Amino acid sequence: MPIVPPTLIEPVQYLLCDADGNLFPSEEPAFDASAEVTNAFLASVGIDARYTASELRAAATGMNFRSTALTLAARAGIADVDVEPWVAEERRAVTAHLGATLRPHEPTLAALTTLAGRLELAAVSSSALSRLAACFSATGLDELIPAARRFSAEDSLPTPTSKPDPAVYRHACVALGIEPEQGLAVEDAVAGVQSAVGAGCPVVGNLLFVLPEEREARAEALLAAGAVTVVESWQELADLVLPVLSVRPDVQTVGGVAR
Asked: Rounded to the nearest 5 degrees, what angle is found at the Cα of 74, between the Cα atoms of 71 and 80?
């Protein structure tokens, strides 16, 4: 069982959940759709490189399409490229594909429901809100994390950005009315851990939807990036934090539910 100091858990009021690859296994199908758009974009600006879905996932996990496209263009020596039409096209293609392919993951729903009895849940993502809406609807998470508690580095900020920029976590904490140490982030990617750490939020790494052959290396990378520990499921996270939350002295009953 992973270990986290109780003093780190005691102040927590919100569970700040990364979405893709963390709440649902969206990264592989998302990159299937995104790779087609990425390769069309590269061709349009005269770049010969092409990416398979797995190659693009390795290069871009944790970043949104805008950041990925600009990074790939910069590596090829191309600056000042207009990616906005491609951002819109990639969003459309990926959102449609995820809405059609994702399904509820019952163990995750059960664990999150238990956690919601003690903590408020929010989503903090690099992905666009429209994409999150399709994913949350397809996976049965709408009631647990409603739209008002979803924060997007793409849509929620004055200037779009992407993790590892900590701006989206800072924005989420301000919008929720909490100090960073009151929000426990849960992330599956290094960029996400760096984003949360940069905002001052404690972070737990989650390997649930990481490919088995990648888990050992990912766990090491998440810890090196600043995660306080790593779990392999949402139930393992619940087993880690709920014993601490159940005995903290400031627990109150809200609407008949202890928090």
From this structure: 105
* pLDDT per residue of the chain (259 residues) written in tens, 0 to 9: 788 999 999 999 999 999 999 999 998 999 999 999 999 999 999 999 999 999 998 888 778 899 999 999 999 999 889 999 999 999 999 999 999 999 999 999 999 999 999 999 999 999 999 999 999 999 999 999 999 999 999 999 999 999 999 999 999 999 999 999 999 999 999 999 999 999 999 999 999 999 999 999 999 999 999 999 999 999 999 999 999 999 876 544 333 334 4
Task: Name the 3-class secondary structure at 95.
Answer: helix
CA angle 14, 127, 204 (to 5 degrees): 40
Under CATH, domain 6-25+104-258 is a member of which superfamily? Answer: HAD superfamily/HAD-like (3.40.50.1000)
